[in-house]
Amino acid sequence: MNYIGEIAGIATAIFWTVTSMAFQVATRRVGSLNVNIIRLFMAFVFYVLYMRMTRGLWLPTDATPEAWKWLSLSGLVGFVLGDFFLFQSYAFVSARISMLMMSLAPPVAALLGYIILGERFTLLNTVGLLMVLSGIAMVILNRGDKTDSKRRFNYPVKGILLAFGGAVGQGSGAVLSKFGMASYDAFSASQIRVIAGVFGFSLIFTLTRRWKGVFTTVKDIKAMKPILIGSFFGPFIGVGLSMVALQHTSAGIASTLMATVPVFILLPSVLFFGEKLTWREVLGAFITVGGIAVFFIH
Predict the structure, then answer these.
(1) If you average pLDDT over residues 60-75, what whole number do you get?
(2) By CB distance 3.0 to 4.6 Å, which of 154, 197, 212, 284 could disulfide with 139?
(3) Cα dist. 178→7, 12, 61, 89, 173 in Å?
């Protein structure tokens, strides 16, 4: 049996674990907007070279106008809006917590798939969604002292809300990608999304006159190293493989496998960032991923 889609989904989760940690480092050094636009420019260069070697095309000129429309919209929603919120969250919470909140992206995608594409939404979907929410709550909420039974946030609310905004953007972008890609080459489809992202951020930087900060960042070696790593494993390899996963298996299976980042990131967050994990946080991460799996059981 052919498991290309499933393998691509797992690989995507591993690469997104790497890229989330790299971008956390870069964002805290030079800011989320600068990291966002530089990594998309880098990803664009990677795509141009890869497409030229594999398809003989510098740009996806063989895509239909319909594909360009939906994939560009997906890039604007996923890269510009979704990733803007996600990267902003790195300034307040760790990549581990942001990626946990991003586990809400598959349920968001499924809900939108139900509304836009007419896909099913069953009782098991509801059970899975409740499991995802429960797992996240175990991590981000904690009971007060013995005299106070109220639940308190373990992490800054602003960071959590920003990461949730990222999840909504990514989930929406995934639905638009599947709708616009159809049988078209997955990496070429990703290139269209990146082009739209570059255009969107370039417009923002022009209107807000922020280009000076970008030029300053480019000269910062300590910032550019993690941006380069994150750009290669994230918007290039990671996003490209995510499109392969969506194309070769169901949206549910692909989304579930790609949403295992909260589990993959546990060990690296301890080894590289010295984070201390509680049993609640580890269990919460596994329950969250388990909920995503249940969410997509047919």
Answers:
(1) 93
(2) 284
(3) 18, 16, 19, 26, 9
Single-letter amino acid, residue 201: F
Query: pLDDT tens across 158-203, in order?
Result: 999 999 999 999 888 888 887 788 788 888 998 999 999 999 999 9
What's the CA gap between 229 and 223, in Å, rounded?
11
CA dist., res. 76 & res. 173, Å (int): 8
Residue whose pair of structure tokens reads 């078209």 in the numeric block: 184
pLDDT of 298: 58
Dig out the tokens for 200 from the structure.
Answer: 């969107």
Q: Is the pTM of this model over 0.85?
A: no
3-class DSSP assignment, residue 152: strand
Which residues are registered as beta bridge partners of 141? 153
What pLDDT, on the 0 to 100 scale, is given for residue 248? 82
- Which uninterrupted H or E stretch holds 153? strand 151-153
Tokens encoding 224 = 């550019």
DSSP assignment string, 61-116 = TTS-HHHHHHHHHHHIIIIIIIHHHHHHHTTTS-HHHHHHHGGGHHHHHHHHIIII
Cα–Cα dist 226/28, whole Å:
11
Please tell me the predicted confidence (pLDDT) of residue 150: 55
